[in-house]
Design a protein that fits this description.
alpha+beta; six-stranded mixed sheet; 38 helices
């Protein structure tokens, strides 16, 4: 399940009306025998069709690469779950991957009676309250499921998608939507549509009890996610009657334990009807041809009357409501106001206000709180749903600051807004920055289909013209209108959540049932699949890069210049790429952080942020371990202004001792928060397992060293950064000669570069079967296997790609099918042979399982069996091989990605596109060669285990079975 941020989509959609009050009007046209509607001046050129059965189809051609993005969405989600069966829509989403009576089964006639029996057993289970009787019924469910699995083919859908070239199989459920997303090569259109049409024709709910366990795991992961708890508890208060607050998408623990397959079927029959669905496609397609194929594929669907969730309006909130939430992660304060319906004037005002308050540069929170370091960080945003929106303010307190104090600072910014103490130019700047965002966003097929799908979910696509024109409307809003609205809206009617660090005593874990592993029949293939995949496909020829032709090489002074001309629009992206980073100078990352708070002799730090926002440009100084970059981007018309301003900042920034003092305090507080982040802890364990006590994760300044940092040290780095060797890269409308001439005037360079200090190097530790453990208060256990696997060899690229695709990457892989589908041991799992990004580094074999703590032993055993014995499934192997080759055949590296590809290959010691060798190497590979690779590099090798879990939930003696247990302190992990 994916929680979709509709506000982001809404914000960028509203950017499309930027071009000087463009007229967006609905028009009607006919072509290829079909009538469609479209909106004039629509940058996506989307055609809106309504088929005879009521199915909405929207097609958006974009032929830059031979790929098509696909979304099938249903206007039904957790809002339409029955009150006594929450989580049902989400269950159904999972089951739409299990196949039909034609695929997913070797013999449906023999499978069906067993599935019918399972349906009946779940009805008994659902209605039985006696614990002993329930256990008895579940044992029968488990037994019958095992018998049924003798006929089922697990993940056959995923195997077909993999075989035809799909790369992004997924789905999500939210309040008022269930969305299925795919992409596929344009030459596989007929196969893809045949599969999708069959998928939704008669879905069969097989392999249910192991999938049910995967949903339990997903629920338990949510119980370990403090942000999820904040959202759920605030929504419950913000929406006391509406299902936004009264029904969670994943459902209650009680309802999850008592599913009804009959109710799920009723839900499917009720809402999965064509007049309540949309198919959106964007990419390499001919609309006239595509609509005919879609119509023919889905004509079998029959329209039915649909009654969607139609709640009574919420009563106005008239008081401040407070909620305290506890958990192991860092503390924060969140303030939520209930917003308005989609496409309303009020929602547009709130969207605009969110940018006035927080836009990353010149908003009130950015300038008054973040820039002045009054809190650790703060943010504002507006999230739009169909019936209401949610306006959110959030902050993390700095060192020594209470949650209430951070809350007060947020509310003070609201008062400033209500008093009108902001520049009206913020409105114009927001419109200009939307233009910049849109020029990039609508070039991407996934953004197009997400926007179109969202439009359908909110209002059946009837207001696409208004969404496109919304930015024009926003540009007309006056400062006074904003102030007047803010005074009416921001009153004492909000919900505030205080997230405290502490034990959550209310957590109710979903207990694991006893599950006997089911058969996956990975080598089996249904007749439907055989027929589908045997159909001929016109091949797509790969397009490789020729760096000598695709890149323009030049000079500016003593610096090399690498450029790619942008022939599509007026966007530029410029970078100064330094061959040094934090491993050369520990202080460099701190200098980059300090820079954000510094002014010059001409500008304050706040004025600098406003200047960039006003010209719709961005700049950043990013410091990695090995490379640092100064990045500048925006519209070419403002190129000189943006570059000159950046040059001025680095040359003339001056000390601000108060800012440095605050920065040190914030760094120390951030470090405390890192120690509360289980993902960061697991990453630190991994680094420790690979390199030992001295490793990249803890190579940093001590807290005492942070306290002793001086402005002089940091300013020296900033003032002299351009004296170090760097490459200038440019993607933009100018030719190489024009760019080189211009940048040489704007970016002065020394006669020779200053040599950088040697980079810190780390020595790989021998993998000896150690267990590295960190205690963390959580329901789940996070387990990773890691083994250093030898020096980089470019000749291994093809084998590694195919091995990863077959073994542990994706839902059709051996690892996923075994760990999740067959044994129901985890919601998330993978295993990959990880390639280094440099010829000087080593490979690593990495595996992962995130499971309930009481499943840890079984999960480790299951993964170890796979690491030691590679199962053979010939059809899965061929699908993996086809997919690996298809990725290369259909990928198109363009724009400044060509520059990034060049640097990546160069770092590996290659002077050409690495995909050329990989593609050539893939063609002749056999399963025997992959089996030999597994035997040589993976099987029966020592592994180090990295485990993050609660000592209350996992046993020391169990971990000792894996190897010698090393319980690491947070200081050992982080280096401070």
């Amino acid at each position: 399940m994916k929680r979709k941020l509709l506000a982001l989509v809404f914000l960028l959609i509203t950017g499309s009306g930027l071009m000087a009050q463009t007229a967006y009007q609905w028009k009607t046209a006919s072509s290829g025998g079909y009538t469609y509607k479209y909106v004039s001046n629509d940058p996506t050129k989307s055609r809106f069709y309504t088929l005879k059965n009521g199915l909405t189809v929207v097609l958006s051609p974009n032929t830059k690469e031979p790929i098509i993005e696909f979304r099938l969405a249903v206007r039904a989600g957790s809002n339409t779950d029955p009150r006594n069966a929450t989580g049902l829509a989400h269950y159904l989403e999972h089951l739409l991957f299990k196949g039909t009576d034609k695929f997913g089964s070797m013999d449906f006639a023999k499978e069906k009676p067993l599935l019918d029996k399972i349906d009946g057993l779940y009805e008994q289970y659902n209605k039985t309250t006696d614990p002993a009787k329930r256990k008895e019924i579940y044992a029968e469910i488990d037994k019958t499921s095992g018998l049924a699995s003798n006929y089922s083919i697990a993940n056959e859908y995923d195997k077909m998608m993999k075989a035809i070239g799909g790369q992004s199989t997924n789905a999500h459920t939210w309040y008022e939507e269930t969305v299925y997303n795919e992409d596929f090569p344009s030459n596989a259109t007929d196969k893809f549509l045949a599969l999708q049409a069959e998928r939704f024709r008669n879905p069969i709910f097989r392999i249910f009890h192991t999938e049910l366990e995967a949903v339990y795991e997903e629920k338990n992961r949510g119980l370990d996610d403090d942000n999820w708890k904040i959202s759920e508890q605030m929504s419950a208060l913000l929406f006391p009657t509406h299902n936004y607050g009264q029904q969670t998408t994943i459902g209650t623990v009680e309802h999850l334990k008592n599913p009804s397959l009959l109710e799920i079927r009723k839900y499917y029959n009720k809402y999965y009807v064509p007049n309540n669905m949309i198919i959106a496609m964007a990419g390499d397609l001919n609309p006239d041809e595509m609509i005919k194929k879609v119509d023919q594929s889905f004509a079998y669907m029959k329209a039915k009357p649909v009654e969607l969730y139609n709640p009574a309006p919420e009563k106005a909130l008239t008081a401040i409501q407070k909620v305290d939430i506890y958990g192991p992660s860092a503390e924060s304060v969140n303030i939520n106001y209930r917003g308005f319906a989609e496409n309303s004037k009020e929602s547009m005002l709130l969207d605009l206000i969110s940018s006035i308050l927080s836009n990353g540069k010149a908003g009130l929170l950015d300038i008054n709180l973040n820039k002045q370091q009054k809190v650790l960080r703060s943010n504002a945003g507006y999230q739009q749903m169909k019936d209401y929106g949610v306006f959110e303010l959030s902050a993390q307190p700095k060192q020594g600051q209470s949650l209430e104090q951070a809350q007060q600072l947020l509310l003070e910014q609201i008062e400033i807004l209500k008093k009108g103490e902001f520049d009206e130019s913020l409105i114009k700047a927001t419109v200009a920055n939307n233009k910049l965002g849109l020029l990039q966003a609508f070039d991407k097929n996934d953004f197009r289909v997400e926007s179109i799908t969202n439009e359908f979910i909110l209002n059946r696509g009837t207001k696409w013209d208004q969404s496109l024109a919304a930015n024009d409307a926003m540009a007309k809003i006056s400062k006074q209108q904003v102030v007047d609205f803010a005074k009416r809206f921001f009153i004492d009617n909000y919900v505030v959540a205080y997230k405290h660090k502490g034990e959550d005593k209310s957590i109710q874990k979903v207990e694991k049932p006893l599950i006997t592993p089911v058969n996956t029949n990975a080598s089996a293939t249904s007749d439907f699949t055989k027929k589908l995949l045997s159909a001929p496909t016109k091949p797509i020829a790969p397009k490789f890069l020729d760096y000598k032709k695709d890149l323009n090489f030049g000079k500016s002074g003593i610096a090399e210049v690498i450029a790619v001309q942008n022939t599509e629009n007026s966007i530029f992206r410029l970078s100064y790429r330094f061959d040094m980073g934090a491993w050369n100078y520990k202080l460099q990352p701190y200098a980059a952080q300090y820079l954000a708070f510094l002014g010059t002799d001409k500008y304050t730090a706040e004025q600098i942020s406003k200047e960039f926002y006003n010209i719709a440009c961005n700049y950043s100084f990013n410091v990695g371990n090995e490379v640092a970059t100064i990045n500048i981007s925006g519209l070419q018309e403002n190129f000189d202004k943006a570059v000159a301003l950046v040059e001025h900042i680095f040359a003339n920034c001056k000390a601000n001792e108060q800012a440095l003092s605050e920065l040190k305090s914030r760094i120390l507080k951030s470090r405390e928060n890192n120690k509360l982040n289980k993902g960061a802890i697991l990453g630190g364990l991994m680094s420790y397992a690979q390199y030992g006590p001295s490793n990249p994760s803890n190579y940093t300044l001590s807290n005492e060293e942070v306290k002793n940092i001086t402005s002089d040290q940091l300013l020296y780095i900033l003032h002299n950064i351009n004296n170090y060797k760097h490459t200038i890269t440019y993607y933009g409308p100018q030719t190489l000669s024009a760019f080189s001439a211009g940048i040489s005037k704007l970016h002065p360079l020394p006669k020779e570069f200053t040599p950088a200090a040697p980079a810190k190097t780390f020595t790989y530790s021998p993998t000896t079967g150690q267990v590295y453990f960190a205690d963390y208060d959580m329901v789940q256990s996070e387990i990773r296997w890691v083994r250093n696997a030898g020096a980089y060899d470019p000749a291994q690229a093809a084998k590694i790609t195919l091995f990863n695709s077959y073994f542990g990457g994706g839902m059709g892989s051996v690892v996923f099918q075994t760990i999740r589908e067959s044994k129901a041991l985890a919601y998330s799992t993978f295993a990959v042979f990880s390639s280094p990004d440099s010829k000087a580094k080593e490979y690593a074999m990495i595996a992962y399982v995130g499971s309930q703590a009481d499943k840890m032993n079984d999960a480790v055993k299951g993964m170890n069996e796979l690491l030691n014995d590679l199962p053979e499934a010939d059809k899965s192997f061929e699908a993996s091989k086809d997919n690996a080759m298809n990725v290369i055949e259909t990928s198109r590296i363009t724009k400044d990605d060509i520059i990034q590809s060049y640097f990546a290959d160069k770092k590996l010691g290659l002077d050409h596109d690495s995909r050329i060798d990989e593609y050539t190497g893939l063609k002749p590979l056999t399963f025997g060669e992959i089996k030999a690779f597994h035997s040589k590099n993976v099987a029966h090798k020592p592994y180090n285990y990295c485990i993050v879990a609660s000592e209350k939930n996992v046993k020391l003696e169990d971990m000792q079975k894996f190897g010698t247990v090393n319980k690491l302190t947070l200081e050992q992990i982080f280096g401070y």
